[in-house]
Amino acid sequence: MTAFTGIPKQVEEVLTTHRRGFLKNAGLLVVSFAAGAGGLIMEADAQDSTTAHPADPYPDLDFRQLDSWIVIHENNTATFYVGKTDCGQGTGTSFRQLMSDELDIAFDRTACIMGSTDNTVDQGGSGGSTAMERDSWPMRRAAAEARRVLLEMASGRLGAPVDRLAVSNAVIAVKADPSKRVTYGELIAGRKFNVRLTGANVNVVTGVAKVKPVRELKSTGQSPQRDDIPAKVDGSLEWAVDVRLPRMVHARNVKPPFACARLTGIDESSVRSLPGFIRVVAKGNYVAVVCEREEQAIRAARQLKTTWEKPATAPFPASENLFDYMRATTPTSASNPIVTGNTEAAFSSAAKIIEAEYEVPFQGHTAFAGAHATADPSDGQMTVYSNDMKSYGMRNGVATFLGMPREKVRVVWMQGPQGFGRTAADDAGCEAAWIAREVGRPVRVQWMRDEETAWDTKSPAFLVKVRGGLDAGGRLIAYDYRARSCDYNHVGYNEPDTVLIAQLMGSRRAKPAAGSSATPSEMYAIPNRRMAGEVVSLPVVWETPLRTGNLRDPNGPQSTFAAESFIDELAAAAKADPLEFRMKMLQAATTDDGGFRRARSIAVFNAVAEAYGWDPRPSPKPESKANILTGRGIAYSFRGQTVVAQIAEVEVNRQTGHVWAKRLVCAHDCGLVVNPQSLRHTVECAMLHGLSRAIHEEVRFDTEKITSTDWVSHPTLRHADAPERIDIVLVNGDPNPNRPDLPPYGAGEAALKPMLAAIANAVYDATGVRIRRVPFRDDRVLAALKAARL
Amino acid sequence: MSNITLKVNGSTHTLDIEPATPLLYILRNDLGLRGPKFGCGLGQCGACTVIVNGAAVRSCIMPASSVKGEITTLEGLSSNGRLHPLQQAWIDEQVPQCGFCQNGQIMTAKALLDKNPHPADAQIRESMNATLCRCMTYYRVQTAIKRAARIIADAQPVQPVPGKPASGKEVAA
Ligand code: FES
Ligand code: FES
Question: How much distance in Å is there from the Cα of A518 to the middle of ligand 2?
Answer without folding.
Answer: 29
